[in-house]
UniProtKB/TrEMBL annotation:
InterPro entries: HemJ-like. This is Protoporphyrinogen IX oxidase. GO terms for cellular component: plasma membrane. Binds 1 heme b (iron(II)-protoporphyrin IX) group per subunit. The chain crosses the membrane at residues 12-35, 56-77, 89-109, 121-143. One of its GO terms (molecular function) is metal ion binding. One of its GO terms (biological process) is protoporphyrinogen IX biosynthetic process. It catalyses: protoporphyrinogen IX + 3 A = protoporphyrin IX + 3 AH2. The keyword Heme applies.
Length: 146
């Protein structure tokens, strides 16, 4: 069976979103552990977590986010009729909030590197943000309620 371009683009969009989500969830864990290392005055641990955070942000999180955006725009171009659906605008708003969360994480990476981070509990609570957003984005994409 011949696959259409939109199916390939949708596949790329989903794959990129999986990678981006995994990176966001992973970053939450790294920030918690980095804050714990800072609390315990573990300079070597802090240095290691800083390296891991930067690599995750630059190597996976940012490229995956860009791929999600590009594939999402391509999906809209291939099916302009979706622009009349309300769920798409809510999904786009949630994606923009998720992008903001990613950049907030970058600010936290810099704070922790400067030994000015928050408590591990703060970062555990912060981990809820991408979880809620990802679930809402998936539900809107699948259910397309309006």
């Amino acid at each position: 069976m011949m696959q259409t371009w939109s199916q390939w683009v949708l596949g790329g969009h989903i794959i990129a979103f999986v990678f981006w989500s995994a990176a966001l969830f992973g970053m939450a864990g790294l920030l918690v552990h980095h804050a714990q290392a800072a609390k315990e005055n573990d300079a070597l641990g802090c240095a290691r977590f800083s390296i891991m955070e930067k690599r995750l942000f630059r190597g996976i999180m940012s490229p995956a986010m860009l791929a999600v955006i590009v594939f999402g725009i391509l999906l809209i171009v291939l099916n302009t009729g979706v622009l009349t659906r309300g769920w798409l605008y809510i999904k786009a708003a949630l994606v923009i909030i998720l992008i903001g969360h990613q950049h907030f994480c970058l600010a936290q990476i810099k704070r922790l590197a400067a030994n000015q981070g928050h408590s591990p509990l703060y970062y555990r609570a912060l981990a809820i943000v991408p979880t809620v957003l990802v679930v809402a984005i998936i539900l809107l994409s699948v259910l397309r309620p309006y």
